[in-house]
């Protein structure tokens, strides 16, 4: 039994509400961190995981205060220490790697200074040794040209580089314990995989204990030895990573794992009803009661204790956990969706579409010359069939949302045409489109907080399209609104609510209802599930699929998440730097042979399974502009064959499975390379 | 009948909302103090003509510069007029002029600001440059010039003050509009094909209203400060109308032996300005405008 | 970078041009011209003729504007009607006196405001904050003429510590001035300091809530080092521009304060020239005060440009 580094005992943290009530957001949490071990703390937003992590450094956010319990670091209570004592521990014994390094690095100080600061505080090195150490650290986190890097300001680095700097800074004090608070959230898929790989390497290399906090079971699965699952401020399940991920014996964890879409599975993940309760809203009973399908009357009245199960080396907070033991083989299932009729007509065609963000210079405008030879999005040809779901996939900067905007008429195309129904050309100017075309194409946005007017009730929000397109009023309007709410599984009483009174999932349902209010032919979905918690995401995906099957709507679905795309789409188009790389039926795109970029993306996906490791085949360089000539992926391609990639745009090749790949490498050769 | 019910319901909702905001404002001690002071001054301004014990313009050589007594609570001034009478009447002009002045400022500043925020581009640049230029002429110089050439009647003062204090509101309204039009719900309304007017009315105005109203409330207290400064300099209300600024100016020379005739109007004016300020502050906090004091969770 | 600076200076000049247009057009539009306004009932016959000749009112307005503007650019503001001498001679000592008053107030006010702002932010909602914030609310809201009057009443009349009214000739030396300006400086800097302290406070509070300050704490940076290295540079930078705007706005308060203390500066000249209806002087004052405003804002802009690493690196890249 190895030594315990930090132990949390019966910790509760809370705040005083405006009405003077004491509300706890962390309740009776106890756990131990052993030397050399990596513990993953997983939970959805609002589960208290970040509060717990910060408390483990003796830091309580302003407005919160500890109600009871202690955080013992080497048998000293961090919560009782003076700030002078804490300064000696923070950075030296326990170091933090923050979620968003871009915001966690002080903007007015150079990278080198910020690392040097940590070295000065926590080591006895002199100036020359420190300078050497800074280069070493920057080298260790694999940042390019460490010498010049030290003289740069944080905003001059990319997101992945900033995150690496934060790692270097945390390592400067040679801590015994590293706290990682969502260190890869917000990074692109490939960058995320690279940073995780680095962290795993550091854990092994230095023997440091780590606490890895994340909402993403995929990331947690890659690094953790042990996993702690949090729900509504409590630990509901705790045990060895493999056990938790493969045989979860708490209904929440079980449901959560089932609701994650997986690369290997076509079809939709099962969803969990409801959403996590707000802090302070539970008075008695189990906090998971309303969402649990094992719940009994006992669960409503009494809240279960965290029970230790010796044979599984697991702690679980559930009365009925036994029902879940040995019935986990069905974790790898999904709801099959009805495939659409492939004989259907094309409803939307993009022909040679190019879009440019560059502003035309004044003189060019006068001469009516198009100056931008290298537009953001170029040569997009996609035909979309009626009733299908086509997904546009790519990392940030791939132009996927740009294409969506120009279909909606919000961005003018530079070249090419967008044709709707029977090859009728849609004007690229919103004002020139006729009302019926506007009605036929509707948008759903990523963040419902931004896409719903905070000053309107749900009734007002939904009545806007109904009034605009169908001139409804009075009783009829109300009836339609209630119908719409029913369609998205919301009750009539939601009509008088404001968006701020709804949960994230409910808000997105309202946004879905608003899009469907127009009785549209096509709905453009822009990262519609990225802002939602996993368990809520599955529910929204299922809802979208259900509505589509009922109403025959066509979806253009933009996402960075390959697993989500796999779950919902019939066909996938992969984009890099505004150029198409690959397009085809989804089951084929997810199979080899693939375009090298698709291969890189698929390799970087993190699955909630400790046995599936990401494959890192390309550097995570950030390219700011598409290359002027040749293949768009030339800068990062692991299978680049030579000059031809830099000079000639690769040809389309159709594989036997029906997916089209744009690469200079012969498709059969590609297939054999990727086996 | 049905639609009637709906509007009634909405009106009730609006009243409830106003009431709720007032309640939130009063829940802080500073807000409660501010609201009570403002309320007190408004009531005083309304009833003071009926409760004033003396005639405010009655000059009497027998009662010059009397110290406070049972007969003259705040003493008398150099012309023998009752200071208490003049003090309780002294806020009426100031309140009226600045209230209507703020309304005008709110209206033109808000509308121009929203317009600039919406159109953006070259027109916005030019308008903001002109607004900036106006901002760079000290208000007091411009006001003095206007008043000295056009006279000190309220018909001149209200629009002039309204104009000069509206400039700041233009900036606030413009910034708020800029923030809102980048939001997805505006993009969504545009993509649906709503007319510009409907987008402005339904989506933008409700979301910039709060910021503009708060700014207007702040401007009210500043305008009161400006207006009383004008009076003090002799360019505001003309004598013998009782006005705090003017009273302070007149009594200043004699304050070494008749301090009461200065203190009373000072207390009156300062309390009103502080009251409006505290109210505006509480109003901003109740609407959640002040970003530095966000709730922790 | 150089381009950016030139652009800012250009914008300032454009603003001044618009100001000159506004004042010129304003005077033209308002009833009466400079001579009839000045002479009032005596505006007839020889007196009016000489006045019109002197000001060149017999030529068309746009010519007069061009003439006037080109003279102003050369530093010649024209002729004062009431003083019967070139405006430059009237202005000279006044500008100097006002500059002394304003710069002493600013030199005391800004550091004080920064210190108070930081104290209130760091001890937010604790006793020092509540006390200082209450005082700043009072001194921010009370008009200068009231605080000035109260200062005279209490310090000069009741306590008899300092002279209540400044009695110095308009060409007094710097040292003569200093002893007389303590009370005016207090009156002016009270309101200015209060405004700025509140701005600094909210700026510091915002930065204190940022991720990078939390990170610095979790890195083990000692409190005061954190405040000076991580908080203040980032909090004060955006405050510079706002402070500049406030200073310019509060120039109006200088006018009132000068009148209360009978101080022979630009502010009193404003009142005098308006009372005398001396429009050429008023025009000159408008341009001068606007230039001060534009100048202060320009300095603030340039300071932000110099200090902001984001803009600095812009220059490296280009």
Architecture overview:
The complex is a heterotrimer of chains A (675), B (297) and C (318). With 675 residues, chain A is α/β, with parallel strands linked by helices. Chain A folds into 3 domains: 4-93 and 175-332, 3-Layer(aba) Sandwich (Rossmann fold); 337-569, Rossmann fold; 582-675, no CATH class. Chain A has 25 helices and 24 strands. In chain A, the strands form 4 sheets. An 8-stranded mixed sheet of chain A has the order 6-7-8-3-9-10-12-11, with helices on both faces. In chain A, helix 7 runs parallel beside helix 8 (189-206). The longest helix of chain A is centred in the N-terminal third of the chain and has 18 residues, at 189-206. The two termini of chain A are 43 Å apart. By secondary structure, chain B is an all-alpha fold. Chain B has one domain (27-296): MetI-like fold (Orthogonal Bundle), CATH 1.10.3720. Chain B is 75% helix and 0% strand. Chain B has helices at 2-26, 29-51, 83-89, 92-119, 121-136, 139-150, 154-181, 184-192, 196-233, 244-252, 260-286. In chain B, helix 6 packs antiparallel against helix 7. Chain B is elongated. Mean pLDDT of chain B is 80; it is low at 1-9 and 291-297. Helix content of chain C is 79%, strand content 1%. Chain C has a two-stranded antiparallel sheet. Mean pLDDT of chain C is 78; it is low at 313-318. The radius of gyration of chain C is 24 Å and the shape is globular. Chain C has 2 domains: 2-87, no CATH class; 92-317, MetI-like fold, CATH 1.10.3720.10. Classes of the chains: A alpha/beta (675), B mainly alpha (297), C mainly alpha (318). Chains in contact: A-B, A-C, B-C.
Topology:
The complex is a heterotrimer of chains A (675), B (297) and C (318).
Chain A: E1 4-16, E2 22-34, E3 38-42, H1 49-55, E4 65-73, E5 76-77, H2 83-89, E6 94-97, H3 101-104, H4 111-122, H5 127-140, H6 146-149, H7 159-171, E7 177-181, H8 189-206, E8 209-214, H9 217-223, E9 226-231, E10 234-240, H10 241-246, H11 251-259, H12 297-301, E11 307-309, E12 314-316, E13 346-355, H13 362-366, E14 377-385, E15 389-393, H14 400-408, E16 415-420, E17 424-426, H15 435-440, E18 441-444, H16 448-451, H17 458-470, H18 474-487, H19 504-517, E19 522-526, H20 534-551, E20 554-559, H21 562-568, E21 571-576, E22 579-585, H22 586-589, H23 596-604, H24 643-647, E23 652-654, E24 660-662, H25 667-674
Parallel strand pairs in A: 3-8, 3-9, 6-7, 7-8, 15-20, 15-21, 18-19, 19-20
Antiparallel strand pairs in A: 1-2, 1-4, 4-5, 9-10, 10-12, 11-12, 13-14, 13-16, 16-17, 21-22, 22-24, 23-24
Chain B: H1 2-26, H2 29-51, H3 83-89, H4 92-119, H5 121-136, H6 139-150, H7 154-181, H8 184-192, H9 196-233, H10 244-252, H11 260-286
Chain C: H1 2-29, H2 34-39, H3 45-55, H4 61-73, E1 79-80, E2 85-86, H5 87-122, H6 127-141, H7 144-158, H8 174-180, H9 182-208, H10 211-218, H11 223-249, H12 251-261, H13 266-275, H14 279-307, H15 309-317
Helix pairs in contact in C: 1-14, 5-6, 5-9, 6-9, 7-9, 7-12, 9-11, 9-12, 10-11, 11-14, 12-13, 13-14
